[in-house]
Every structure is written in structure tokens, then in C-alpha cells.
Amino acid sequence: MKPACSSLPGPLLIQCEIVIVDTSGSSLVSNLTVTRLIKKSLLGATLALSAVVLLVFLASQVEQHFFRRRAELLLTQIQSLELGKTPWSQTKGQLKNWDAESTFDDSCNESECLADVRLVEPVYGFVTRTEFFAHLDDYIRWRLKLSSSDTGPVVRLELALLRGYMLLGGRPARIVAFVGMRDGIVSSKGYSVEIQTYWPNIRGLLPWDNFALIAAERTVSEFDLPDTNHLDPQLNLHPGYRIWRQAGCCDFEQGNVEFTPRADPNDIRRLMRLNLSCLTQIRPCASLSDIMPAAWEEYRVEHPGE
Question: pLDDT tens across 231-244, in order?
Fold first, then answer.
């Protein structure tokens, strides 16, 4: 509001009028424009974040299915080897398919040899093999004078990203298979799978109940029992193999199958049926019954109290 005045004819005659200028309209328009811009920015950021999450999910699923396919192929090849029958020449031909992942023991010769094949899920391999984050954490702890027992910020961030990857369907995993030869014939074999997983019924994300789910199956020459005067009751039922749970606390759950070269090949094939769909399932496998169903069903029958 401001006055507007003009002179009129005559002495000292002045006419004034008050002119009211309304600026509230332009201010209101300005506020609405800012609000719209904020809403559009938030919508754009939400869509971009959703697109990133979707791309990560799709990429992880493609990578997980490819890894599972290779793990299943390796398991099939190990299952096909018959102890005391399969020639080493045939086995070496199969191992050529895994040149990049296989290693032969330095002591291998024409009469005795041991070879293993290791498959590592790419994300898990990056996390476990890269020491850059650990070194960076050590430096930050040194600069900030933090206790060496404290988990540094970089490692915490790394773990948070790994957990986010798992929530999006990623299944960090490692496969180890081995074959032993004696006198030109396959004498031992084994296959183990380790999957980083979590309890699917947790309330929220904290505390994070993650652990390693492990199924390990291997040949042993004889059963190494703590007290040879008391045989494992399982051996009275099936002297060629035994199934047992690895003692542990909170960070892993492991089931084991051990069989001697004298075990029935049909029993070995049956017990080596592992559920490798755990490598790609959206709902994580969280029990030994999930990962090794045939062996653990028999174990539960023979150990009803567990």
C-alpha cells in the first residue's frame, strides 16, 4: 500500500489517493512452484533408487543362476565317480572342464594324486579376498585412536552392503570338491557347499541373524571316533557311512556325511543329493534339511531327540 498524490488547480490543493498493491498472489505462486519442484525431485529420486534396486536384483539373479548351474554340473560329475572303479584318466578328462578353478597337489605322481575344484560366488569372492577394506579400516582406527577390537566404519559399511545384497536375493557361497587317486583308480572324493544365509523369520533387520549353512560330504579310509571302545550306533545300522552334525554355536550350521570306499555306491549317490536350489531361492535356506534333505531325513530318523 502506498499513497499517490496529484496537484489540483488552486492554492495548496492536493488530491491524494491510496493505491493498494497485492503481492501475496505472486508469493503464493512461488511457494507452489517450489513445492512442485520438491515433489518432482523426490519422485525422481524414488524412481531412480527403485530402478537401481531392480537392476541389482536382476543382475544378482542372473549371476546366481549361472553359478548354481556350474555348481550342479560339478556335483553331477563328482557323483558319477565310483570309488575303486573309475579310471583316473577318465577323471582327468572331466577335470579339464575346470582348469581355471582346479589345483593338483604338488606331490601328485603316476600312482597317487589329489585334485580339488573351488567355485566361489563372485560377490562372496570379492568380499573375502579383498583386503583393501580391512587395511583402510586399520588406518582409520589408527588415525582416530580407536580400539583394535572395534569394528571399523569401512568394514561395517561392507557388511551392511553384503546384507543388503542378501536381502535382494544374493546368496554368497563357496563350493569345494576333491578327487583322490591311487594306483590309477579313483580312491576318494568329496563335495561341500557353504552358503551365507539368515533366518527368514527375523523381526526386522536388527539383530541380523546371519550364519553359514554348510553341507560337507567326503570319503574317509576309516572312521576316526573319539573312543574306539564305543562305536557310533549308526555304524551298527550302516557300517559304510555315518551322518553327523558339526559342533558349533551361532555363526554356522554344518552337517557332515562320511563314507568309506566299502560303502554301497547307491547309498553314496543317495546321500550326495544336495539341494543346490538354495543358491537361487528368494526365501533363504536356513536348515540342514533344506540343503541336504536325503541325508538329514535319515539323520533325524536315527536321532529322534534332536
Answer: 677 888 888 999 99
Q: Which three cell numbers stand for residue 91?
A: 577323471
**Residue 245: which H helix or E strand, with range?**
strand 241-245
To which H or E segment does residue 7 belong? strand 2-7
Cβ-based burial of 177 (10 A; exposed 0-12, middle 13-18, buried ≥19): buried
What does the pLDDT look like over 262-302, one tens digit per residue? 999 999 999 999 999 999 988 889 899 999 999 999 999 99
Q: Cα(74)–Cα(80) distance, rounded to whole angstroms?
A: 10
CA-based Rg of the chain, rounded to a whole angstrom? 34
List the single range of 27-31, 75-79, 141-145 with lowest mean pLDDT: 27-31
Per DSSP, the three-state class of 232 is: coil
Domain ranges, ordered by start, for the chain? 71-120+171-302, 122-166
Three-class DSSP labels, 114-176: EEEEEEECHHHHHHHHCCHHHHHHHHHHHHHCCCCCCCCHHHHHHHHHHHHHHHCCCCCEEEE
Q: What separation in angstroms does the CA of 138 have from each of 124, 135, 155, 159?
A: 21, 5, 10, 16
Residue 39: Cβ-neighbour burial (10 angstroms; 0-12, 13-18, 19+):
exposed
What DSSP line would sit under 42-105, residue for residue? Answer: HHHHHHHHHHHHHHHHHHHHHHHHHHHHHHHHHHHHHHH--TTTSBHHHHHHHHGGGTTTEEE-
Contact between 233 and 256 under an 8 Å Cβ cutoff? The reply is no
112 grid coordinates: 597317487
